[in-house]
Amino acid sequence: MQIILMHNVENLGRMGETVSVARGYARNFLIPRGLAVTSSEASRKIVAAHLKQEAKREDGRLAEARTLAAKIGTLTCTLSVQADEENKLFGSVTARDIAGALQSEHASFDHKQVLLDEPIKLLGDYDVAVKVYGDVTVTAKVNVVRS
Q: pLDDT of 109-138, one tens digit each?
């Protein structure tokens, strides 16, 4: 079944693309949730108008995110944790810990926005990327010290 995506769908396609999917997937999941419409000439016109509106909204969101990132600049936080004599932590510092420590008057961050490859397990200073929106990221200086 040919459908036009109204939103980005992971592992399927981006908004505005025409894709072929199983009939049941389209009828039972994508169309009822508003993620897609059936492919026809009338729906192509509707999708084109929707894409123009969404592009304007996206530009506004990106501009807002860039101004927020410029306003915030570089974030810093210090986390006090228990460690042994070899500077190894008893446990680890995760993205959730960093997000909680980065709460500021400018913005609040979710742990999913903290781009940490693996948990921090040693004392020291680390540079961690924080995703504000889309491709806009801010660098956070995380200082892990012994408590």
A: 889 989 999 999 999 999 999 898 888 888
Strand order in the sheet with 18-20: 18-20, 2-5, 36-38
Sheet holding 114-115, edge to edge: 75-81, 136-146, 124-133, 114-115
- Yes or no: say if 141 and 120 are a contact pair by the CB < 8 Å rule: no
Q: Residue 111: CB partners within 8 Å, gap ≥ 6?
A: 94, 95, 96, 98, 99, 100
Q: What is the DSSP letter of 6?
A: S
User: 57-68, pLDDT tens digit by residue?
Assistant: 989 999 988 988
Type of residue at 72:
I
- pTM for this prediction: 0.68
Q: Which domains does the chain have, with CATH numbers?
A: 2-64 (3.40.5.10), 73-146 (3.10.430.100)
**Backbone φ and ψ of 128, nearest 5°:** -120, 135
At 28-64, the pLDDT tens digits run 999 999 999 999 989 888 888 888 998 899 899 999 8
**Alpha-carbon distance 40 to 140, whole Å?**
48
